[in-house]
Each structure stands twice: as C-alpha cells, then as structure tokens.
C-alpha cells in the first residue's frame, strides 16, 4: 500500500494531465457542433469496421454448418436433375415408358438424408477407408449408402456410437451395382488401385450399345442405393480378360481427395430388402 501511495504521489502530474485531457475532449466535442460531428462520424466508422470484422469471423465459423446443408441439398438436386434428364430423353421415344420409369425412379423419395463430416480419409491405399462423425446415436446403421453432392461415396461398414467406417468406391472390396444411364446395361463398379478418379464397370454385356461420355448411375439393385445416383462418366471401353464382356473405365464424379461433407441414405424400404436378403442367405446355408 505504501508503494502504491508513493507511486501515485511521484506521478500525480501525469494523472492530473490525463484527467484534464479527458475533460477538455468532452467539452470540445460536446459543445462544438463541428468537432462533435467529426467525432460522431469517426466513432461510427470505427464501430462499423468492428462490426464488419465480427460479422466476418462469425460467418467464417458458420461455414461448416452451411456447407453441410448445401451438401445435403446438392445430393437431392443432383438426382432430381438426372431424373428429369432421363424422363425427357425417354419421352422422345415413348411417353408410356417414360411415365413408368419416372414412377419407379424418384431419387431419395421417402429417404432421410443424415448429414455427416469426414474426419479421416484414405485415397492412396489398395483398401481405403473413410471415417465419419456420425454413429448409431445418430441413426446410422451398417450397409447404409453414403453419398455427397457429386454422387456415390460408399457403404457403411462398421458403426460405433458416435463414428462410422465407410468402405468407399476406392476399395478393392467395393462392389456397387451400376447401370449406364438411358442405355439399360448393368455392371458392377470395382476399383483395382491406381488413380482415385478412375474405376471400372465390369461385366457389361458385349451386345451393349453406349458411347463415351455416357453417365454411369446406380441401378437400385444393390439394396443400398436408390436408382439414379450419379457415379461417373464412361471414359474408355476395354475387353474383359475372357473376351465375353466389356470392361468400362469410369471417371468418378466424386472427388475423394477433397471429400469433406457427406450424407447417409436412411431408407427403410432398402433396409427391409437387406434384412430379407440376409435372412434368405442364412436359410440356404448348409446345415
């Protein structure tokens, strides 16, 4: 206490100076209209800039939530666009066939999309895996399809309470049933290593007619994905090893190297099909 008193006594002239400065500034800006207007304008400019910085910081930290919403919406809109393209093309050939196709291919209708974020991702291994931040507590179950705004990602393999492991299309064990859009020919999408942008549609019949650039979408026969989810585009065509079918090189629409936000497809009808298929497989196992 003695030191504080001694310090104030020693530097009292500085404190008196500061008090007088404050008083003079108040008198100057309060009783002089010109100086007051200058102070008001300057204060508003500073306050506005501070609010602008605060808004920018708040917007930056809210981008994560906005991005998740956009991913979910993009996944839905992508399939709507492809559905409309498909129906328009079929209407030019057969109106009746288009109506039938349209009624059976409404993407994600009756599905619940669960948004999630990728917390771990591999693209440079033979059996890549993806970890997402949603688990059983969020309604995630094994064998759910995983999509992003650009198309197919993979299938849920393991589920814990708050996290899940996804087998992506970039995994040698991935085997997704696909079709060449508007051509009606089916095959299985497989990845054998190499570029994260390329996979192969196997077992396409030799009599199939299609062209480079055609869209490859899910067929709806895998009991995981609804029909019409974008997979990629036909890049090249090769003969299979036995020469009995085509091996179609597909440029994947999903950029796995930059994957951040995904959605899980929660479809009770698909889950019922999966459970029924498992029950059938168990019933025909040798005793």
UniProtKB/TrEMBL annotation:
GO biological process terms, semicolon-separated: regulation of cell shape
InterPro entries per the UniProt record, alphabetical: Cell/Rod_1, Cell/Rod_MreC_2, MreC, MreC_beta-barrel_core
Coiled-coil region list: 67-94
Cellular component terms per the entry's GO annotation: plasma membrane
Ranges of residues in domain Rod shape-determining protein MreC beta-barrel core: 118-265
Transmembrane segments: none
Keyword field: Cell shape, Coiled coil
Xref: Pfam families: MreC (PF04085)
Function: Involved in formation and maintenance of cell shape.
Family, as annotated: Belongs to the MreC family.
PANTHER family in the cross-refs: CELL SHAPE-DETERMINING PROTEIN MREC (PTHR34138:SF1)
NCBIfam families reported for this sequence: PRK13922.9-3 (NF010532)
Protein name: Cell shape-determining protein MreC
